[in-house]
Amino acid sequence: MATSWCQRLSVFFYIRAVRSIKGLQDDQGQEKRLASIPKAVTDAKIYPVKLRDVPKGLTRYDAEKMIKKHNFFEKNLNEEGDFANAFVDNADGTITDRATGLMWDKGGSSSTLYIWKAEKYVSRLNKEKFLGYDDWRIPTLEELCSLVERERNERGQHISRFFKGNQSVYWSKDHFTELSIVEQYFIVNFAKGNTGLGARADFSGRFPVNKFSIRAVRSIK
After folding, report:
1. Residue 157 confidence (pLDDT) above 50
2. What are the distances in angstroms from CA 150 to CA 34, 87, 168, 216?
3. I want to staple 198 with a disulfide (CB 3.0 to 4.6 A). Which of 1, 56, 119, 187 is the partner?
4. What residue spans define the domains of the chain?
5. Percent of the chain residues past pLDDT 70, beyond the cut
């Protein structure tokens, strides 16, 4: 009986020891898996953010609501905003954001364009299969705002150092719907870290029609 009881105790403590070792290994394995994920992604709870990719009309209120919903940094509307990106430089002229599933043109357009010429510019990129892809587009305001960072890079712009180009203001494809004598589209100014409006057309002839840059984007399928 004594021998049997000792054997049972030995088995009991053996099983506990095995379970403890296995638990420690599982914890270490979990830590290793998390360590392989960029911090920005872990901060975002590893849930990719789906941003609207279809252009639409917005009011100023719509734009502010969207910025605060995604916690985008905007100097005037959400100064404490800090959207968590997970950028990867693909070393082929493109930047992928694993947090949003978007691929960006690293350099952007080399010159400023009227927005109707910007549309032709993107069409030409697709016709020429720029960087190997034919589904480039002008980003929505939502997508473009996801690139705005609280801190300035070495060029003094509110955007990741991964991105290149000397231009500061970029067109979005979302148009302004409030009553105006000027047809306008939303823009993002990376030098100031804020959003604004740019005129596509002026029906009164009293206001200048704007020219800004394009940073083409595509959705990773």
Report:
1. yes
2. 25, 16, 15, 22
3. 187
4. 1-36, 44-219
5. 79
